[in-house]
Amino acid sequence: MPPKTTPTLIGLLRPYRALITGLVVFAVLSNALALVIPKVIAYAIDSYTKGGFDLFTTTLEFFAIGVGILIFTYLQSVMQTYASERVARDLRNETAAKISVQDYVYIEEVTPSKLLTNLTSDADAVKTFVSQAIASIVSSLFLIVGASVLLLMINWKLGLVVLLLVPIIGVTFYTVLQRVRKLFTKAQEAVDWLNAVINESILGAALIRVVNAQDVEYKKFTDANTNSKNIGMGILRMFAILIPTITFVASLASLAVLTLGGHFVIVGSMTLGELTAFYSYLAILIFPIIIIGFMSNVIAQASASYARIAAVLNAPVKKDDGVVVAELTGLIDVKDVSVKFGEKYALKDVSFTIKPNTKTAIIGPTAAGKTQLLYILTALTKPETGTVSYDSCDIETYNKQSLHSQVGFVFQDSIIFNLTVRENIAFSTTVTDKDLEKAIETAELHDFVDTLQDGLDTVVSERGSSLSGGQKQRIMLARALALNPKVLLLDDFTARVDQKTEQKIVKNLEANYPDMTLVSVTQKIAPIENYDQIIVLMEGEVLAVGTHAQLLKTSPEYVQIYESQKSTSHYELQA
Amino acid sequence: MNYKLNQGENTETKGTLRAAFAKILPLMFAERKNMILACIAILINSGLTLVGPIIVGHTIDTYIRTGDYNGIVVFSVILLGIYLITFGAGYIQTTVMGGVGRRVLFNLRNEIFTKLSELPLAFFNANKSGDLISRINNDTDKLNQFFAQALMQFIGNIFVIIGAGIFLLALNVKLGIGALLPALGILIVTQLISPWIERTNLKSLRTLGSMSGEIQESLANFKVIVAFNRLDYFRNKFAEVNAKNFSASISAGLANNIFTPLYGFASNLAQMIVLSYGIYLIGTGQLTVGLLISFLLYVNNFYMPLRQIASIWSTFQLALASLDRISEVLALENTMEVLPHTEEPTHAKGVLEFANVSFAYENGKEVLRHTNIVLEKGKTYALVGPTGGGKTTTASLMARLYDPTEGTVLLNGRDIRTYTPQERSQKIGFILQEPTLFRGTVRDNLVYGSTEYASATNEDLMDILQEAGLGHLLERFDQGLATPVGTSSDSMSLGQRQLVAFIRAVLRKPELLILDEATANIDTVTEQLLEEVLKKLPSTTTRVIIAHRLNTIEEADEIFFINEGGVTSAGSMDHAVEMLLHGSRTS
Q1: E strands within B444-587?
Q2: Cβ neighbours of B564 in A, within 8 Å
Q3: I need a labelling partner for A490 at 20 to 30 A (CA). Which of A266, A279, B264, B477 fits?
Q4: What are the structural domain ranges in chain B?
Q5: What average pLDDT does this structure show over A281-300?
Q6: B352-582: which CATH topology?
Q7: Does A222 fall in a domain?
Q8: Which residues contact A206 (CB under 8 A, 6 or more apart)?
Q9: Residues B207, B246: contact at Cβ < 8 Å?
């Protein structure tokens, strides 16, 4: 990729020079042979009328040319299949590789659905360009020039008259196509919208059935569908004028050949064979003009698609310039951290310290910024202002790989990959069998794994619908534990795990990971009462920090939360 | 009914032209009037296009060769007239035929969507959503390309081919047969290789589907990939599916591209035969030079559209493969029909009753075994039990997201299957474990699917919310009703999304309200507010609450313990706690 120049399709094709050259050469060869055929016919007719016609030689010549064309066009199609598929494959791989070195913020900014389009339909548009446009345009140009030259050579006067019509067709086509192109863009937008509606109705299938909103979805859909149909009809009207016009102009050309050519034959300045050849070349001439028109559209689409892909490819990568690779002790300092979403603070001047080998809970109402805080602690997102440091070193100075392998994060929403249970848990590659075993045991997954048909090697499904919410949560926990992390971050882990299992897990954690520093975002006070530190977070601000006993005395907000849970707390204290 | 799509590889269909038409024609049945009109236009268009060469041949034979220039002029004028009529017919042909294609596509899309909304939840659980989306989007797109563009060319060309064929035979039978022989050969070859081509295309479409599924999954889960240092996972996994897609596409591409060279060859072969054999026939006095020229033009007229059909043949094959895949969806039947309602129940045991209900998933996993439960009006029930014990499934049966494999669920003493979806959704509110929100605003999501509130102004809606005690909950959203909701799951916290789902369900004042861990990620203070809302519900409202947190079920009148296929009444809260703490999961 040349630095900072606008990416062009031609530049993209440079590495495939050999294939493309082969493609062009075979296209030219097959078309050159095609241009010879009318000559052979003309010669045959003329030599027959004049006498001295050799049937065998003519037939043989004709057959040889036919076979030649067959071979060359087939080779051309092989070349273009390989070239186009390779371009698409490499482009996709390159894009995916680029995406994979980007950070989380970038993905959220660009949105996954746009990246999906880049990797699928945009890459396809470029593929279509290679597979259709290149050969078609080369062939068409060659045929137009070749047929024109031959027409002029046979009879330049008649040739000129016929060629006059070429620009007419060209200009008409170009003008209409300009208009159609705009409609095409609109049509694509309409289809995108249509797809979005379908997607929502698939992903929201359960809710739609619960509230019986099929009609709403259907209305959304028919609106989108009707819109798409109307735009399609608009395009159709353009073509309805265009195609007959071109045919008509082409017919005029053949009329000219008959009238003028007939005259020339009568006066003897042209032979009958030549007149026949004229007809044949005329047929050859018209089609390529139309093809070029269509292909200009393919090129425009491919250019737009490639520009979108190039934007992804050329997006700056936030370099991981962290060099510090050190074993964490678990000392975490958060200083004046603020995060803003638009005008609103998600976190505001948040500061606290977590000592090694301690347990810290972050408690607070919905939308208090708790999850955001965890994202910042794992360097998934960056605070606008303020710093986070581990062992007095800024988080930015750490090598991210080293950091992530020591900080385990159990996300709030269940994310299960379409892999085996084993691969889902040992998701990080550094996990040993021992780590895996310990993690499974700690997360109380043994019983569950035993019920699976293939045990750990059972593939679990994409949206994890074959697993219950709690099972998914525990797999997520095991995934984080398998890292043997120094620091474990839990985001509302207990929300979906039943009491009994939860208590077992807590015990297991203490027994199996004694040196781990734990940071737990939670709603429940009971399990965290004996934590070393509890941070009360509300509307992005730290309201109080302390132990359970301290907070009961100092923080009215904490007491409020406590009161709201108190009535049942005696149950949760059991066991 | 098994809703899993695409499992067998036996979707192989006969790739014959006839089979293809058998599939396409029924779709166009409703358009037969327009089709007739289009066909007339096509007939005129192609007929006149075909008359052209005859006139040219005639002019050459009778006037050019004899040097009668006046005759040439006369016939030129006739030709001009013919061309003008062709122009008009061509316009009508394109408009009408294209319109047919557009409308067929429109109807087909509607049909698919209607089917999607009819099919039960089991269908969506049985299939990867990424795969499903790709199937619907890509396949309708392929059909779009075919119906919007190729169909018109296809039909027009077929007419020209038939016409040219007839002319060739009519002008001179012997030469005509000679000219058509290569076409016969090529048709036989096409018939032979079509199934293979369709197969490779189907395979390539499938790999495309699994590729976009893979991308979707990876991108949606990017944060885990980052946090666990597995950026290589995305890269490698993608490279793997990409490589698969590459090899499948290469085979498909090579297969699709075989036609163009073959058809070109047939066309040249035909010209060769006409030229050589034609000159021989002229020598024996059976043909004139003018006729030979006409013949050569007809050969062009015959083979050129044939080549065009060959070039759109792959579009056609792709469309057929897509149609197959879509038909697979369309062929699925909703097994959850609304049964006819026969007699009024004599005695209703409570609002909802499970009568000897058993349920097992398609994969054989049994969740409920001969279960009997009665839920009485106005009471609060709690479902507790270990994770994976079947709480959500039980709740789903109550809302008829699934039908029991055995036994009946009765709503107000009537089989729940006899209620229309609308009646059912009015009576039952279900707050799902994973809240689903749609793009739009909080307001859009609250009134979603409701005929009652859809037209209410924001002020009216606020009043209604206040009255239901839901107003202050909106304070959790910075722009109130107007707060935008995005599709990305991180644009709004899980707790907030659960809040919207809660308000959405309560607003409808259902008779039976099911909360499936609906407040799991909502803080306890807000949760208390929600509890007050629940308490304020009319005394006739029955509540079913699934929760791990015991304080949420404290108020329950009855607690059911669900595990290992059994539902046991836990009696008191203490007993329930006892069961949860000490009840073993395997015994």
Answers
A1: 484-485, 512-516, 542-546, 558-563, 566-571
A2: none
A3: B477
A4: 28-330, 352-582
A5: 79
A6: Rossmann fold (3.40.50)
A7: no
A8: B121, B124, B401, B432, B436
A9: no
- Residue B62 main-chain phi, psi, to 5 deg: -90, -30
Do the beta carbons of residue B481 and residue B443 sit within 8 Å?
A: yes
| A313, part of any domain | no
- CA dist A386 and A346 (Å) reads 14
State the DSSP H helix or E strand holding residue B19, giving kind and residue range, or none if neither.
helix B17-24
How many Å apart are CA A333 and CA A378, to the nearest integer? Answer: 13
Q: Identify the band that residue A67 occupies on the pLDDT scale cut at 50, 70 and 90.
A: very high
Q: Which domain holds residue A487?
A: 343-573
Residue B100 DSSP SS3: helix
What is the least distance, in Å, from the CA of B232 to any CA of chain A? 7
**Closest to A123 (Cα-Cα) out of B258, B317, B208, B128:** B208
3-state secondary structure of A520: strand
B388-397 tens-digit pLDDT = 778 888 988 9
Closest CA to A227 of B455, B145, B102, B97: B102
CB contact under 8 A, A255 and B83: yes
**B428 → chain A, closest CA residue:** A210
**Mean pLDDT value across residues B314-326:** 79
pLDDT, tens digit (0-9, with 9 covering 90-100), for B442-477: 888 888 877 778 788 888 888 888 888 888 888 878
Put simply, whether B523 touches A (Cβ < 8 Å) is: yes
Computed from CA positions of residues B573, B575, B576, B582, in that sequence, does the dihedral angle turn out positive or negative? positive
B573-582 vs A499-512: helix crossing angle, rounded to 10? 40
What does the alpha-carbon distance between residue B557 and residue B543 come to, in Å, rounded to a whole number? 10
CB A212 within 8 A of CB B449: yes
- What pLDDT does residue A465 have? 56
pLDDT tens by residue, B375-427: 988 888 988 877 677 888 898 899 888 889 889 998 888 888 888 888 888 88
- A461 pLDDT higher than 70: no
Nearest to B141 by CA among A116, A120, A86: A120
List the structure tokens of A535: 């941070």
Q: Is B110 on the interface with A (CB under 8 A)?
A: yes
Chain B's closest residue to A115, CA to CA, is B219
> Final residue of a domain: which of A146, A174, A194?
A146
Contacts of B136 in chain A (CB under 8 A): 195, 198, 202
The helix/strand/coil state of B537 is coil
| A/B interface, count of CB pairs below 8 Å | 469
pLDDT digits (tens, 9 = 90+) for B263-275: 889 989 998 999 8
Q: Is the pLDDT of residue A538 over 90?
A: no
Decide which of A118, A146, A174 is a domain's last residue: A146
Please check whether residue A561 lies inside any domain of the structure. yes
B547 pLDDT band (50/70/90 cuts)? confident
**Average pLDDT in the A345-364 region?**
89
Is there a contact between A248 and B109 if contact means CB atoms under 8 Å apart?
no
Number of structural domains found in chain A: 2
Q: What is the pLDDT of residue B182?
A: 93
The yes-or-no verdict on residue A512 having pLDDT over 80 is yes
Structure token digits, residue B581: 């703490």
Chain B residues inside the 8 Å CB shell of A270:
none
- ipTM, interface predicted TM-score of the complex: 0.76
* Residue whose C-alpha is closest to residue B414's, from B359, B335, B343, B356: B343
What distance in Å separates residue A367's CA from the closest CA in chain B? Answer: 6
Residue A189 lies in a domain: no
Q: Considering CB atoms only, which of A89, A214, A225 is closest to B110?
A: A225
Among the CATH numbers 3.40.50.2300, 3.40.30.10, 1.20.1560.10, 3.40.50.1000, which is that of B28-330?
Answer: 1.20.1560.10
Residue of B nearest to A41 (CA): B275
**Residue type at position A192:** D
Query: Computed over its alpha carbons, how large is the radius of gyration of chain A?
Result: 36
